[in-house]
Amino acid sequence: MSILENVLIVSTPGSRIYVRHGVVYIQAPDSKPIPVTFDTELLVLATGGVSISGRALRRLSELGVRLVVLGQRGQVAGELRPVDRVNRTIESRLAQYRVKLEGRGLAYAAEMVYAKIVNQARLLRYLAKSRREPWLRDDGYAVEEYAARLRSTLDEGRRLDENLVRGLEAQAARRYWSALAALIPWDTGFRGRDPRGEDPVNKALSYSYAILYSVASDALTVAGLDPYAGFLHRDRSGKPSLVYDYSDTFKPIAVDKALFTNIDQQLFELYQGSLTYTARRELARRVLENLASPYTDAAGKRRRLRDHIYGYAWSLAQSLRENRRYQAFRARL
């Protein structure tokens, strides 16, 4: 099991979650039970073969702990959410729906895409230095050019076009993922990001992104927003499109940096087409440790990455309520 302050991730098959004397315990095979404490906010079931009792489900709700279940491909398959952890829900969601209905959502989405591309560019330059791969610096500046083009459109007040936003995002992504793929010293079949890709790198990314999605979904919901009403990802029944829009900003720093700074073959181990337990455990450990690490944003505020995720969700909700520009997370690396 992996532990981040306020977050528990169960990744060991055969684990049990049960209640004893009013305390919820998580116990992996051949391990001592770990209690769910009063400051725990999120519990993620990241593997199959986990048993949980009805009493444990009820007690988790009473403690205000959100339970998230990840599917086989790493997607959020289900959740149990306490009813008293959300704030200013009606006001925030009405503003969110109004922005969608009035066609103003693209402006918010474009700010998230801009920040995502900036973070991709900064990660490539960071890797160029940390891994002593100077050629990555050129890729970083090339990716940043796409962010500059989008920023110019936003700052000059020109009419936003969805095809332009998606096009710049896609061009930046091709250059970004091509550079990261070149860092892997053995052939994995990875040629770029594909959420349905069967190669081990895409599977590892999907699994790791699911951990980020669970945290981002909680942050958006606590801020009073509807995680299923996004601005760029297409709305579809059961698809948390705002979670995807919002998480994209954090992916390069929260996940890609954790996986590509120190590439280890055990991160990508497969057995019968699925990530091994060892791979899932190591991926979860890396992502959680990264979420607990301090980062400085563009405004100079230094805090844990997890706290940035919650803080920027509040900022997004406030921006929607006050009908003003949203400035998405950009990390200083």
UniProtKB/TrEMBL annotation:
Cofactor dependency: Mg(2+); Mn(2+)
Record family assignment: Belongs to the CRISPR-associated endonuclease Cas1 family.
Residue positions binding Mn(2+): E169, H233, D248
A Pfam entry, by short name: Cas_Cas1
Keywords: Antiviral defense, DNA-binding, Endonuclease, Hydrolase, Magnesium, Manganese, Metal-binding, Nuclease
EC id: 3.1.-.-
InterPro entries on file: Cas1 (IPR050646), CRISPR-assoc_Cas1 (IPR002729), CRISPR-assoc_Cas1_C (IPR042206), CRISPR-assoc_Cas1_N (IPR042211)
Designated name of the protein: CRISPR-associated endonuclease Cas1
HAMAP family named among the record's database cross-references: Cas1
Key word Cell membrane present: no
Assembly and interaction partners: Homodimer, forms a heterotetramer with a Cas2 homodimer.
GO terms for biological process, alphabetical: defense response to virus; maintenance of CRISPR repeat elements
Gene: cas1
